[in-house]
Each structure stands twice: as C-alpha cells, then as structure tokens.
Amino acid sequence: MSEIAIRPEALRDAVAAALGERARSVTVALGEVTAVVNAATYYEAMQILRDAPGCRFDLLSDLCGVDYSTYGDGLWEGARFCVVSHLLSIELNQRVRVKVFCADDDLPAVASVNPLWNSANWFEREAFDLYGIVFEGHEDLRRILTDYGFIGHPFRKDFPISGHVEMRYDAEQRRVVYQPVTIEPREIIPRVIREDNYGEGLN
User: Fold this and answer.
1) Predicted confidence (pLDDT) per residue in 47-67, tens digit
2) Which of 98, 120, 143, 170 could join 129 in a cystine, given CB atoms 3.0 to 4.6 angstroms apart?
3) DSSP string, 56-77
C-alpha cells in the first residue's frame, strides 16, 4: 500500500483521463476530487474507476441518494435526483466522490454497481427505500428501513414530515392496523417574551 497519497490535482487528471467522455466534469474542492458522470455510461465509468491503473478504487465505502428539488432555495435547474458514491483505493491511498444524476425525475433510475462492489447492495436498497431511486440490475431491490406496506419515500423533499399513515396495535382485532395520520401538521416557532422595560437600567 502506498503511504503517500497522490495530490488532488494529479488524481483529478488521472480520473479525467481514465473516464474520458464518460465524465461530465472532474473537479477539486477542499482537497477532494469529485467526478460527475453521465447516467448512460455510469456502470462503465464505475468499472473503469475500479480497474484502471491510475485509479484502482477497490472499495465502495458509501453510496446515497440526494434530492436537489429545494437546493439553493429552489433555484436549482438540473435533474432532481442524484446518486453519490465514495470510492477508496487501498492500494494507491486515494479517494474520489462520484455523482450521477438520474435522467428522469418521475422515475429516477441508474444502473446498479452491486456487481462491481458487494458493499453497494444495502446502500442501493436504502437509496431506493428513502428516495425511490431504482437501481437497474439489482437482484434484490426492496425496502430496507421502512415497513413492507410503507407508501412513498420519506427522504424526498415533498414527503410530509408527519407521513401519510400511522400504525397502531388494535386490541380488538389483535393485530397492527394502519390508519390516516391523526396529527395535525403545525410549525413550532419559538417566541421570545420580554417585559416592557427589559434591559433598562443595565447601562
């Protein structure tokens, strides 16, 4: 294993050269390299990052979904859903972040990278469960955190904070039942209450 990590600018150039036209951009910010790849060639790009001599990213340490619909106070004009992965090369002591934006906001989908890294399995299931992102080619894509009968995807920005349904145990039916949410949504705004002469005479 290499003890000295490659400079971010050199890693950026190596990743850009390996990916070629598959990368929309490869940038450095705060000492970290981020590659944005095309959805159509996402799987191929990830395989190159795993196998190319200057990359050798043999470990996928994280993968998550992102909903950009309210990003920048609603000024975001790109695709709504994104999949972000963090790759590590143990051999070359280097890291890269990879972002791929889903082409369709109504049915967000990208290729599964589980065949490349087994660690992607539960990460992709979590992103599917919480954001509704479909990972094409995943052999066991099902919910992992919410209940089997759960409706919707709770990390989407338009999902209500209180949810759509609530569950409780019904003693008469002797089973768990689902019913519409009975909590009334409200915003809790802290109030500052001061006396009329607050602060007088302190100077």
Assistant:
1) 999 999 999 999 999 999 999
2) 143
3) ---EEEEEEEEE-TTHHHHT--
